[in-house]
Structure formats: C-alpha cells, structure tokens
Amino acid sequence: MASPGSIAYPDRFYAAAAYAGFGAASSASASLSRFQNDVALLLYALHQQATAGPCNVPKPRAWSPVEQSKWTSWHGLGSMPTAEAMRLFVKILEEEDPGWYSRVPEFNPQPVVDIEMHKPKEEANILPASTNGTSSVPEPKTISENGSSVETQDKVVILEGLSTVSAHEEWTALSVSGQRPKPRYEHGATILQDKMYVFGGNHNGRYLSDLQVLDLKSLTWSKIDAKLQEGMSDSAKTAQVSPCAGHSLISCGNKFFSVAGHTKDPSDSITVKEFDPHTCTWSIVRTYGKPPVSRGGQSVTLVGTTLVVFGGEDAKRGLLNDLHILDLETMTWDDVDAIGTPPAPRSDHAAACHADRYLLIFGGGSHATCFNDLHVLDLQTMEWSRPKQQGLIPSPRAGHAGATVGENWYIVGGGNNKSGVSETLVLNMSTLAWSVVSTVEGRVPLASEGMTLLYSNYSGEDYLISFGGYNGRYSNEAYAFKLSVKLDPQSSTKDQPISDTTSRVLEPEVEISQDGKIREIAVDNADLKNRNDEANEQLLAALKAEKEELEATLNREGLQTVQLKEEITEAEARNTELTKELQAVRGQLAAEQSRCFKLEVDVAELRQKLQSLDALEREVELLRRQKAASEQAALDAKQKQGSGGVWGWLVGTPPDDSDS
C-alpha cells in the first residue's frame, strides 16, 4: 500500500483528490458532503485552483447560494500557484482525515531527487561522525547539486558531539547514530542539559506522541518510553500520552513544558503538560484562571517566569490573535487586553523576547496568504507597535522557526505559497536590521515548513540546531550551524528599549561567481570594528539628542510648575476675599434673623388683638339682633291693639277709656 511520503506530486494530489470525492465519477457536490462546510469549500477552491487555475468565471446568480459560496471561496485564492494549491489541498486533507492514505490505490510515482544545500567551494566539508559521536578519517563525499556531482575532501579532526562541526556560518548535516525518529513536522523541540528533546508532530497526516532525544555529546538518537501520570500521588496510574502537533516545547529549570497543540479529540481549552527527565513521566499541569481556547500553530515565549501565548489556529480552523500569559509560579492564566493595533490573526509565526521586556512577532500566515510584518509588544505598558524594519526586508513566510542568541534573532525555513524559503536570516533586535547569514539551494530540509530551530552553547561555542520539517517530503534530518562569534545568551542588556543600542550585525557580503552561484565572504575584524564604531557614534548621537529632548521637556515642565504656583497663589487670594465676603454676609444674615424674630412677635400680638376684635364684633351683632327683636315685638303689640278697637265699635262695645 502506498504512503504519502512515497507518492510525489502531482500524483499525491490526484490521489488525495480522488479520495476526497473529486474524481471523474463524482461531483463537487458529493465531495462537499464529506466534510464540514468551511473545510469542504476550501478543499473545493484549492482543487479548482490546482486543476483549472485562478477563478475567471462570472459570479453565479443570487438565487444559487451554494454556487455563490463555492465561487467566493475559489475567487478568494487569487493567483495562488498550482503547486501551492496542490500542497495545501493535501495538507488540509491530512489534518481532517489523517488515515486517508491507507485507503488509496497503489501509485508508481517518479523518484523525487533531493538537492543538497549549496556549500562554498573554498570551504572544506564536515567530517561524518562515527557511531560513537567522534569523527574519523573520512573518504571523499559526493554532494548532488542540480544533477551534477562535486567531490570534496574533509579534514581529519578528532572531535566529538557538536564539536565535529568545524565550519562557521554554514549549515552542516549531523552524522548521527542510533535509530532516527520518524520524519515529521509541526513537532515540538527543546534543549535541556546538552540533549535535544523532540516530542510529537505530524507524519503523513497522523499525529505522533513519541518522545525522542538526541545526545549532543555523542550525537546518538534514543527513544524515551514516557508515560502520562494521572493524579498527584506516587501510586497514581499511568496512561499513554495523546498524540499532538502544532504544540510548543519550552524548557524551564530542569524540566520542560508542552503547551497547546492540535489533537484528534481537542479539548475546550489549552492543555499544559510537564515532563520530568528524571522520572521520564508526563503530567498534566493544573492551572488557574481562565485558560485560552484550544489551538495549534501558536507561539509560546518564555519571559522571566511567565509564558506568553499569542495567536494560532483553533480546533475549527479559526485564526486567532489573542494574547495570554501563564505565570509559572502560580500557574495562573491572565487574559491580556493590550492597547494599540495587534497583528492580524495568524498561525505558524515566530516570536522572540528581547531584554525581558519586548515581545517580537514576525511572519505567519492565514488560509490564503503569508505575512512578513514585524510587530512589537511592550510587556510593561502592554502596547502593540509596528516599527520600521531596516536592512533587507524578508519575504512573506509561514511555518518558519526562530532562535535567539544574545540580541540576535535567527530565522530559518518557512514557506511563501510558492516554495520553501532558502535563506537563513538574522534580525538585530536592538536596531531592527535584517541581514542574510546563509543560503541553501534546492529542496533541502532547511527550506521546509514546520521545522524547529534551537540554540545550544556546547564546549564554549554557539550553535543553531534544526530538525524535521516538510517541503513535499517529511524530514528527520538534524542540521547544525556554528556561529562565527561566541555570544553569551545572558549578555543582552536588560531593560534596553528597541533601537536604543547596537551589537554585531551579521551581514555577510556576497558576490556572484561565473556559474551563477552565491558564496559568502566572511566579514573581517576590521570591518566589524568599523561598523561597531559607526554604531557607537550613532548611539552617542541618539543619546545626545534624547538628552537635549529630555532637558527641553524638563524646562517645559519647570515653566508649567511656576505657572501652576502662580495660579495657586491667585486662587488662595481669591479664597481669602471670598471668606471675608462670606463672613459679612453671615453678619447681615444674623441681623436679618433678629429683625425677623421681632416681626414675628409683633405679628403674634396683632393676631391676639384681631381675635379680641372678632369677639367684640360677635357681641355687638348679638346686641343688634336682640334690639331688632325687641322693636319687632313692640310693633306687633301695637298693631294688635289697634285692630281690637275697630271690632269693638262694630259690635257696640265701648272703647276703653284708658285707651283714650
């Protein structure tokens, strides 16, 4: 049965397309039903881009939403090359269905010829190490370059481990012993006590869970039978570690952590595992606070006693640009809301810390494009910025690896949607100046995505070590890069702002030979001294300018202070006057209150008099009524008497003499 590693492009793409349902006998609609909508649309778009080229068909009508979605997904790929579309199609299928290749028919692909990295003709090649890690008298070695063979003779040197790498400023394939790890990419790697640990990764679409170690003293590979300890007690049960890829491996003290990563059955939040080399056991770290969502392809940077996590891709292929910090002393997560404009959502980028204060983010990619931007986060003020890069600006890339040596940040590998990136770059994190250190030719592991890059100080020399990667083939090769000048990793200036100082700038001169190949010319000590002098002069001028600016600022602050004092004096004088006016008003108010009291007394007396008058008026009214009643009674009596005399005369009664 064929395996993806043995199937070359484009046969590999056609096999994946047939498995996904894009064969001649099946329709695109049938293929869409095999996956979730967003994944199916992306696979459809990549298949169309790989087989028909960029989208140049008119947009479907509004009443056909499915066709519109398919057209939009295809049109969004723009002018992506056919080869890159094939590669991304296979990569996404491997992530969605790692076992797809076990069900494809046999293929008879053409052999893929690897082209070894270009090495300068004037430099002697490195001795192959023997099985015990020491070099021996070598035989001439043939290096394939563009189909031609070049024989070189190595020097006879008796060294061991990384010391067998004698050439400076060029990549050398390490001659290792022991059983090599399975080829992989998107794995995690770290160095602890002169040993390089490699954990997990992706091979042929399958997530791995093995832990491999390369002894840098003997250059011997070995596998650690590590178990996952469940529980905190000594009698806790052990289990197998879950396979993962896209995670980060970070050394801290005499242990190291595995943070995040894609798994077959993802959890809701990031998982942190700790490995103890003494007991050879993994354990799940219990964290506090609100952990970030599960993800892979993020960056995890050790800053002091904290881990800074940025970006990545969640379990639903959604890109992220959030920022989280894990305190390793309290194991507490902190969700950081930084100010400024953050980098666009991305994964497979590189991150580094400078002066224990600045977090640098470079490159990375989305589903359709790659970036070459550089962002800086001030971890004290939590503010994002995008400074101007100096020197030769790198091309866009994703899946690259980085390692810091002092204040220099080395970047290796990655892809740019066209091919693997062949140059090794260095960024001086103080001046933000880029330069090219080395260049390789051909499809070699160093021009791969998903590789790892580590720094090691071995026997007083500084080395960069790369492992793994994917550039159409999975790699399990280890390469070493010996730096020309030893740098103390602790020598970087603390609390030193970006672009405030300089250090050695590795910017090798290049010249083009007649055969069109590029070879590096080492920078001599005089040129380096001149550059350092110029840099020091620039630094001195910058410091003088900053001093003048600070003095001017101080003078402005002094003037403002004098003005504020005068304003305070005037305010105090106005306050005194207002106090006097307030006292006068209070006196007037007291006098008015006294006068009001007297008026109230007078009013009370008048009210009493008015009440007396009311009583007199009632008595007078009563007397008037009595008088009127008496007069009315007298009048009635008189009228009665007069009417009785008339009736008596009529009947003959003599009138009363008394009345006459």
Structure description:
The chain is α+β, with helices and mostly antiparallel strands and 660 residues long. The chain is built from six helices and 32 strands. The strands form eight sheets. Strands 9-8-13-12-11-10 form a six-stranded mixed sheet, with no helix packed on it. Strands 14, 15, 16, 17 and 18 form a five-stranded antiparallel sheet that branches. It has a five-stranded mixed sheet with strand order 23-27-26-25-24, with no helix packed on it. A hairpin with a 4-residue loop joins strand 12 and strand 13. Helix 1 packs across helix 5, helix 3 packs across helix 4 and helix 3 runs antiparallel to helix 5. The chain is elongated, with a radius of gyration of 47 Å. About 15% of the residues have low confidence.
Largest β-sheet summary: 6 strands, mixed
Number of strands: 32
Question: How far do the termini sit from each other?
Answer: 170 Å
- Helix percentage: 25-40%
Biggest sheet, spatial arrangement of strands: 9-8-13-12-11-10
Strand fraction: 25-35%
Decide which structural class fits the backbone.
Answer: alpha+beta
